[in-house]
């Protein structure tokens, strides 16, 4: 009698497929959202009403703890949830309410004075392009030096890795860039 041993990856893969197809999980996904919904990636999905008074110009919610960015359109017809990178430390983190004041496709980037102190070897200017730290698109916030932007370094997503900004995969920031407008309200918490 020959036994076939599964690799750990095969075992986890077949187990997860079985779990994902269970009727109770499928029913749970169809139910009305509760105050906090959870997805398979462990991002918490909040209700916009818990953070904003209205959806005028849409809303972006950046959750530092779950490392997720959520977007709601003004008419509530669009809701998006994206994984993100967040500031590397609490001292680099700014929390509160702000708004999108400018949108730039193909942004250039200049390190802040404090970044240059920490990393004097960095150049003073990065032109737009594939190696630009802001990725393909950037939403500039009313707080100086803070952005929601893309990154070509996909290893940063889901980690505490930024100098203060919120980073998204380039394909996700391109989508959010198309949805958000100047005046979109933003909360980082």
From TrEMBL:
Molecular function terms, GO-annotated: glycosyltransferase activity; peptidoglycan L,D-transpeptidase activity
Superkingdom of origin organism: Bacteria
Catalytic residues in the record: 149 (proton donor/acceptor), 165 (nucleophile)
Domain annotation L,D-TPase catalytic: ranges: 58-189
GO cellular component, one term: extracellular region
Gene Ontology terms describing biological process: cell wall organization; peptidoglycan-protein cross-linking; regulation of cell shape
Stretches assigned to coiled coil: none
Keywords: Cell shape, Cell wall biogenesis/degradation, Glycosyltransferase, Hydrolase, Peptidoglycan synthesis, Transferase
Cited Gene3D superfamilies: L,D-transpeptidase catalytic domain-like (2.40.440.10)
Residues making up the signal peptide according to the UniProt record: none
CDD domains on file: YkuD_like
Pfam families for this protein: YkuD
Known pathway: Cell wall biogenesis; peptidoglycan biosynthesis
PANTHER family listed in its UniProt record: L,D-TRANSPEPTIDASE, L,D-TRANSPEPTIDASE ERFK_SRFK-RELATED
Family under the similarity heading: Belongs to the YkuD family.
Name of protein: L,D-transpeptidase-like protein
Source species: Celeribacter persicus
């Amino acid at each position: 009698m020959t036994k076939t041993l599964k690799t750990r990856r095969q075992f986890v893969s077949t187990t997860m497929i079985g779990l994902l197809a269970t009727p109770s999980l499928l029913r749970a996904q169809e139910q009305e959202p509760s105050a906090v919904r959870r997805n398979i990636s462990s991002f918490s999905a909040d209700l916009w009403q818990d953070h904003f008074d209205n959806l005028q110009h849409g809303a972006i919610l950046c959750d530092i703890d779950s490392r997720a960015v959520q977007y709601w359109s003004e008419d509530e017809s669009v809701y998006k949830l994206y994984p993100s990178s967040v500031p590397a430390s609490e001292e680099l983190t700014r929390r509160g309410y702000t708004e999108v004041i400018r949108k730039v496709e193909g942004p250039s980037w200049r390190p802040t004075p404090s970044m240059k102190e920490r990393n004097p070897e960095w150049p003073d200017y990065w032109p737009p392009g594939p190696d630009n730290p802001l990725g393909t698109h950037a939403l500039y916030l009313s707080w100086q030096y803070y952005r929601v932007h893309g990154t070509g370094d996909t290893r940063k997503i889901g980690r505490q890795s930024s100098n203060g900004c919120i980073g998204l995969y380039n394909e996700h920031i391109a989508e959010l860039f198309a949805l958000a407008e100047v005046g979109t309200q933003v909360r980082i918490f």
